[in-house]
Amino acid sequence: QVQLVESGGGLVQAGDSLRLSCAASGDTFSSYSMGWFRQAPGKEREFVARISWSGANSYYAEAVKGRFTISRDNAKNTVYLQMNSLKPEDTAVYYCAAALPIPGGGYLYNYWGQGTQVTVSS
């Protein structure tokens, strides 16, 4: 079992930056790949970024590539999402999630945080 708590959301203007944090407790944090997802009003939840258990590999949605950076500190059981050059379309509730690989490829996100609101005004 992993418990995840996000923080760092808020109201910012277009072009500003925010850093989200996700603190984990419970099971061995470093065993999990970690992901960030977001859900805007009226839309389905979408993938934002993922980082491998070691932090050596990261992956991004095209919409955020070059603006967002995912990182982790296994000593602090925390994963981060640095968001730069924010746009109004980045407005959403942001969730972190913990994943394990599944046979045949892919990842299963078993554990989710409660989300943190990010609002970007134009």
Q: End-to-end span in angstroms?
A: 40 Å
Strand content: over 45%
- Mean pLDDT, to the nearest integer, reads 95
Instruction: Please estimate the helix content.
Output: under 10%
Mind describing the biggest β-sheet? 7 strands, mixed
Enumerate how many helices there are, as a single number. 0
Radius of gyration: 14 Å
Overall structural class, as computed from helix and strand content, comes to: mainly beta
Describe the structure.
The structure is a single chain. The protein has 122 residues and is an all-beta fold. 0% of the residues lie in helices and 57% in strands. The protein contains no helices and 11 strands. The strands form 2 sheets. Strands 2, 4, 5, 6, 9, 10 and 11 form a 7-stranded mixed sheet that branches. The radius of gyration is 14 Å and the shape is globular.
Itemize the secondary structure elements and their pairings.
Blueprint: E1 2-7, E2 10-13, E3 18-26, E4 33-39, E5 46-51, E6 58-60, E7 68-73, E8 78-83, E9 92-101, E10 107-112, E11 116-121
Please name the defining characteristics of this protein.
single chain, 122 residues, mainly beta, seven-stranded mixed beta sheet, four-stranded antiparallel beta sheet, 11 strands
